[in-house]
Design a protein that fits this description.
The chain is an alpha/beta fold and about 400 residues long. The chain has 16 helices and eight strands. The radius of gyration is 20 Å and the shape is globular.
C-alpha cells in the first residue's frame, strides 16, 4: 500500500489531455515564486481597477481550483467526481465581506448546501467560514475580551444566531457541518460558539465540526481539554484537521505585537502535531469524528494504518479524508478506489469574490516545500504514460 499514491492512471482518470496540460503549465507557473508575486499584484490591480481580466482568470486558475460561479455550475464536476466515489464539499468562498446582507447571503448559501446534501449522496457535508458570518473585528474583540458597544452587541448576537440556524438545519437534515478556522487573534471567539453548537447538536453523533490548524503548537492541549469537557457534559467532538493557511501573517503579527509566535517552530514540528492529534482522535473515535484535511502522503498513510490497527471499517462514517479540488488527486482518487471516505473541497462563487481564496492557494503552493514539485512530477508521469 505504500505505493498507492504513485498510480497516476487512477489519479487523473477524469482529466482529458488538454486538462492535464493546463494543470501542468499552471503548476509550472506556481512553482516560480517571483511569477506568483507579480501575478498576484497584477491580478489585484486589474480587479481593483475593473480591467476585463475575469475571462482569463476563469479559464485558467479559477477553473482549475474552483467548481464554478454558482452551485448549479458545480453540479457536472460533483457528478463526475462521484463516478469515482469522490464526494464534494461545496464551499462558498467569497471572502472579505463586511456588511450584514453579505453575511446573511453566506448563511443562505450554507443552508442551500445542507438542502443539496439531503438530496445528493455526493454532498456529505456543508461548510462555512466564521468571517463569512460576521466581521473579523468582532471576533477579535471577543477573543481579546474587549467590551462591545451596543451596536456591536446586536451584531454579535446575529452572528451567534447564524451559527445556530445552520447548525440546527444540519441537525434536522442529518448533514454534518464543517466550520473552518482562521487567524489566531479571532479564533477563540469562533471556537467558543462552535463548542456551544457541539454541546447542543452533537449529543448522539457528530453533526458540528470545528477545525484545528495544526501548525499551532497549542492545539493538542486544546483538544484534550475540550475532550474532558465533552465527556463531562455529554457531547461528541467533530474536528477537521488541517496544517494551516496563515503562517506568514501569524509570524509577522506576533513579531509586531511582541507576543509568543503561535506557530510551530518548523514543518517537522507541524507534521508531528498533525499526526499526534490524528492519532489521539482515532484512539478516542467513540467520542469523536475526524475529517483529515491533508495533502500530506505520510499523514494519509498514517490514517490508513490507524484504521487498520483499530479494526475500523474503511468507510466508517466518522472518518473522512479531505483534499482541495485541483490538488492532490493522486491521494483522493487512489484512496476512494480503495473504499475510504474521501471528499474534495469544491470552492465556488463570483470570480472577483473568490480571488482572495485563489491567491492564497497559489501562495501556499509556492511556500510549501515539495508540494508543487510533487504535483508536477505526477502530471509529468501521467503525460508520459499517455504519450502526450
Amino acid at each position: 500500500m505504500k505505493e498507492l499514491f504513485e498510480n497516476t492512471e487512477v489519479a487523473f482518470a477524469l482529466k482529458s489531455n488538454s486538462q492535464l496540460d493546463r494543470a501542468y503549465y499552471l503548476f509550472e507557473m506556481i512553482k516560480r515564486e517571483p511569477l506568483v508575486k507579480i501575478g498576484t499584484a497584477v491580478t489585484k490591480f486589474a480587479l481593483k481597477t475593473y480591467l476585463p481580466v475575469e475571462g482569463i482568470i476563469r479559464t485558467t486558475v479559477f477553473d482549475h481550483f474552483c467548481g464554478g460561479v454558482t452551485e448549479k455550475d458545480c453540479m457536472p464536476t460533483i457528478d463526475r467526481m462521484f463516478t469515482k466515489n469522490v464526494h464534494s464539499v461545496l464551499d462558498y468562498s467569497a471572502e472579505g465581506k463586511e456588511v450584514e446582507e453579505q453575511f446573511d447571503l453566506a448563511m443562505q448559501k450554507t443552508l442551500n448546501t445542507i438542502n443539496f446534501g439531503v438530496e445528493k449522496e455526493s454532498l456529505p457535508f456543508a461548510v462555512f467560514k466564521p468571517t463569512g458570518f460576521g466581521k473579523l473585528s468582532l471576533y477579535q474583540k471577543i477573543t481579546e475580551g474587549t467590551q462591545l458597544d451596543a451596536h456591536e452587541e446586536i451584531e454579535w448576537k446575529r452572528i451567534k444566531e447564524r451559527y445556530n440556524i445552520v447548525s440546527k438545519a444540519a441537525y434536522d437534515n442529518d448533514v454534518p457541518l464543517l466550520i473552518d478556522a482562521e487567524e489566531t487573534w479571532m479564533q477563540k471567539a469562533a471556537d467558543d460558539i462552535i463548542e456551544e453548537m457541539m454541546k447542543k447538536y452533537n449529543t448522539k453523533k457528530v453533526i458540528v465540526f470545528g477545525t484545528l490548524q495544526l501548525y499551532r503548537w497549542d492545539r493538542l492541549d486544546y483538544l484534550k481539554e475540550l475532550h474532558q469537557r465533552a465527556k463531562e457534559q455529554g457531547f461528541k467532538i467533530g474536528m477537521k484537521l488541517v496544517r494551516g493557511a496563515y503562517m506568514e501573517k501569524e509570524r509577522e503579527r506576533a513579531e509586531e505585537y511582541g507576543y509568543k509566535d503561535p506557530i510551530c517552530v518548523n514543518k517537522a514540528a507541524t507534521d508531528k502535531m498533525f499526526d499526534e492529534v490524528l492519532t489521539y482522535m482515532i484512539e478516542n473515535i467513540d467520542d469523536m469524528a475526524v475529517f483529515a484535511g491533508t495533502h500530506n502522503e505520510e499523514s494519509s498513510y498514517l490514517l490508513m494504518d490507524l484504521i487498520d490497527k483499530y479494526k475500523l471499517a474503511k468507510n466508517d462514517r466518522r472518518i473522512w479524508f479531505g483534499q482541495l479540488y485541483g490538488m492532490s488527486d493522486h491521494i483522493s482518487y487512489n484512496l476512494a478506489k480503495e473504499g475510504y471516505n474521501v471528499a474534495k473541497y469544491l470552492p465556488f462563487g463570483p470570480v472577483r469574490d473568490v480571488m482572495p481564496y485563489l491567491i492564497r492557494r497559489a501562495e501556499e503552493n509556492t511556500s510549501v516545500a515539495g508540494q508543487t514539485s510533487r504535483e508536477l512530477n505526477l502530471l509529468k508521469k501521467e503525460r508520459a504514460r499517455r504519450k502526450i
